[in-house]
């Protein structure tokens, strides 16, 4: 075979046919899944970037819980306000509790905490606050926690304090209102029960009287 013929064969082998666009139907279709944050029924009334710490009772030192936006969320129906903070990027919850004073009431997966939720100045800092909660659910279970939150400056810290205390007052009023309404409802049930008992006694007396008349 001549060199020219060899070259033609090599040139043919080097030629690559143009690719044809081919579509393959996927074996499994992935459906779009709506991701819920459990914030759909709430309005954000306060939001500010901060860093959250918790006090470790074992080591007796502050440990960082996360950095992100701390929010006050108001429920559209109940009006109750909770504190929520998610870590940057992962969006994992690092604080989740209601801000009130007064009683301890379980509400689904949340707990309205006691009156110990009061902001106190963090010693040595004008941009940080400390508070404790009887029940925080950020880790999935109810835990007593001592928190410290630090902001970029004292102005932001004071804005948070003002919003925090306003939320606490709102929740306390709602809680007291619920307590009064529950007490009134309980009294109504008692009165209805008394009336029903009286009616039963009266009906029984009437039946006995009718029997005596028949015996005569």
UniProtKB/TrEMBL annotation:
Q: Which InterPro entries match?
A: PH-like_dom_sf, Ran_bind_dom, RanBP1-like, RanBP1_RanBD
Q: Which PROSITE patterns match?
A: RANBD1
Q: Which domain of life is it from?
A: Eukaryota
**What are the RanBD1 domain coordinates in residue numbering?**
23-173
Pfam families according to UniProt: Ran_BP1
Checking Gene3D superfamilies in the record gives: Pleckstrin-homology domain (PH domain)/Phosphotyrosine-binding domain (PTB)
- Give me the stretches of Basic and acidic residues compositional bias: 187-216
GO CC term (a single one): nuclear pore
Protein name as annotated: Ran-specific GTPase-activating protein 1
What is the originating organism of this protein? Smittium mucronatum
């Amino acid at each position: 075979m001549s060199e020219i013929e060899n070259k033609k064969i090599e040139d043919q082998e080097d030629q690559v046919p143009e690719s044809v666009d081919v579509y393959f139907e996927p074996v499994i279709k992935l459906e779009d899944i709506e991701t819920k944050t459990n914030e759909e029924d709430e309005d954000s009334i306060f939001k500010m970037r901060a860093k959250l710490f918790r006090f470790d009772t074992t080591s007796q030192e502050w440990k960082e819980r996360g950095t992100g936006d701390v929010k006050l969320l108001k429920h559209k129906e109940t009006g109750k306000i909770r504190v929520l903070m998610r870590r940057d990027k992962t969006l994992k919850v690092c604080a989740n509790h209601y801000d009130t004073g007064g009683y301890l009431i379980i509400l689904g997966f949340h707990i309205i905490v006691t009156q110990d939720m009061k902001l106190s100045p963090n010693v040595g800092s004008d941009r940080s606050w400390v508070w404790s909660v009887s029940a925080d659910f950020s880790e999935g279970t109810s835990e007593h926690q001592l928190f410290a939150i630090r902001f970029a400056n004292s102005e932001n810290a004071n804005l948070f304090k003002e919003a925090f205390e306003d939320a606490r007052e709102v929740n306390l009023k709602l809680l007291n209102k619920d307590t009064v309404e529950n007490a009134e409802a309980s009294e109504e049930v008692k009165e209805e029960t008394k009336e029903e008992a009286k009616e039963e006694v009266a009906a029984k007396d009437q039946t006995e009287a009718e029997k005596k008349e028949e015996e005569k």
